[in-house]
Automatic annotation (TrEMBL):
Keywords: Lyase, Pyridoxal phosphate. One of its GO terms (biological process) is L-threonine catabolic process. The keyword Lyase applies. This is L-serine deaminase. InterPro entries: Ser/Thr_Dehydratase, TrpB-like_PALP. It comes from Parnassius apollo (Apollo butterfly). One of its GO terms (molecular function) is threonine deaminase activity. Its cofactor is pyridoxal 5'-phosphate.
């Protein structure tokens, strides 16, 4: 349980001091009006923290910690358990400030990320299946060697993250609301402190994946509470419990906490990529996904800032995520239809798909296990459509021509195909 007597509640003075410390060490990222505002009832702005050198706002907190405790860290070194953003950020700023960094990554970490950390002179240790396993190993090394364990709930890390909130109000003094993705809660707590000080009328919301609702559960219980970590697209937000200092800072001050469905996170990734021309990971777009899902109707017509916290996604995962997003938007359709088992069967199907202006992505025929007559084969097809309306029109056309056609829809929430 969160004992207020033993936690640190972040102050604006600490955030202001952090801003001065890290002034020359981080990128002051742009705040851009989102192009999708033109097709929605919201006036959305994007704070593009994915444009930091290593691709996430974690750099701000790490830089502040490394500068504030530079002499100690140079002597002892730093060990960082992470699934991505903290690791690459610590490796980069450790190299620039002469601090030896050891990063501890789970087995499932993309090889490219481990390689990037190594190129930045960090020692890389691969350990455990989950972040919790890596954290336990890092704690053990910390006790044995005296290396400083980097904790995202550290007050200096939180203070550095608060500079995101300072920049938002400086860049857009008219901001009515800020939506913040929630991992350990440090970013949310720090942005809340900054916004409340600089513009008390600005609402601050938190957003997290509904599959790992650690902040929502903490708010309901009144103290940090552990939740199971279920794999999802917002991997960078996957922590089993929020930080004690972060929660103590947030408690009683947060305007709303939002739980976002994974399917809308997939849609948001596609939207940011296609409309905004930005690469962001699932964790990074969680704030925008909350708006797309319609969780904040009270913000219609108001200037709403969505923080895009990161863009550290490897190419193979990005490719899989794009396909998930297209499926969630209804733009990838999978269906099966019976065809005459002759030279005209597939030709006729291809012509129908072409006439409907859809793009065939794959086609597999099934003959051996078909239960109908021997003159019939089933074609399993995946096509891409332009939008929801095009998709529905295509379905209607196929069902009219093939009454026994079966469509499958991917439900990201239970990973099952519904027919």
């Amino acid at each position: 349980m969160c004992d207020v007597d033993k936690v640190h509640i972040l102050s604006f003075a600490e955030v202001k001091q952090a801003a001065e410390r890290i002034e020359d060490g981080i990128i002051h990222t742009p705040l851009c009006e989102a192009k999708i505002s033109k097709c929605m009832d919201y006036e959305i702005y994007l704070k593009c923290e994915n444009l930091q050198y290593t691709g996430s706002c974690a750099e701000r907190g790490i830089r502040n910690l490394f500068c504030a405790r530079h002499e100690e860290l140079c002597t002892c070194g730093v060990i960082v358990p992470s699934i991505g953003d903290l690791a690459i950020g610590a490796a980069y700023h450790g190299e620039s400030l002469g601090i030896q960094v050891t990063v501890v990554l789970p087995d499932r970490t993309p090889p490219a990320l481990a390689q990037r950390c190594s190129e930045l002179s960090a020692d890389v240790v691969i350990c455990g299946e989950t972040l919790e396993d890596s954290t336990n190993y890092a704690k053990k090394v910390h006790m044995e060697t005296g290396q400083i364990l980097l904790n995202p709930d550290d007050p200096d890390v939180m203070a550095g993250l608060g500079t995101v909130g300072m920049e938002i109000i400086t860049q857009l003094p008219e901001a009515d609301a800020v939506i913040v993705p929630v991992a350990s809660g440090s970013l949310l707590a720090a942005v809340l402190v900054a916004c409340n000080k600089l513009k008390c009328s600005c609402l601050v919301y938190g957003a997290e994946c509904a599959k790992v609702p650690k902040m929502m559960k903490a708010c309901q219980a009144g103290h940090p509470i552990g939740v199971p970590v279920v794999p999802n697209l917002a991997e960078g937000l996957n922590t089993c419990i929020v930080g004690r200092n972060a929660f103590a800072t947030i408690k009683g001050r947060l305007d709303r906490m939002l739980e976002v469905d994974e399917s809308y996170i997939a849609r948001a990734i596609i939207t940011v990529l296609e409309r905004e021309r930005l690469v962001a990971d699932g964790a990074g777009v969680c704030s925008l996904a909350a708006v797309i899902q319609g969780l904040v109707p009270e913000l219609r017509g108001k200037r709403t800032v969505c923080i895009i916290t990161g863009g550290n996604v490897d190419s193979s995962r990005l490719a899989r995520t794009i396909h998930r997003g297209l499926s969630a938007c209804g733009r990838l359709l999978r269906f099966a239809v019976p065809l005459a088992d002759n030279r005209n069967g597939l030709e006729n199907l291809a012509k129908i798909i072409s006439d409907e202006h859809a793009v065939m992505k794959s086609l597999v025929t099934e003959q051996m296990w078909v239960q109908s007559d021997v003159g019939t084969t089933w074609a399993n097809v995946v096509v891409e459509t332009a939008n929801d309306e095009h998709s529905e029109n295509f379905k209607d056309r196929i069902r009219h021509l093939f009454p026994s056609a079966r469509f499958a829809v991917m439900d990201l929430n239970d990973k099952k195909c519904k027919r």
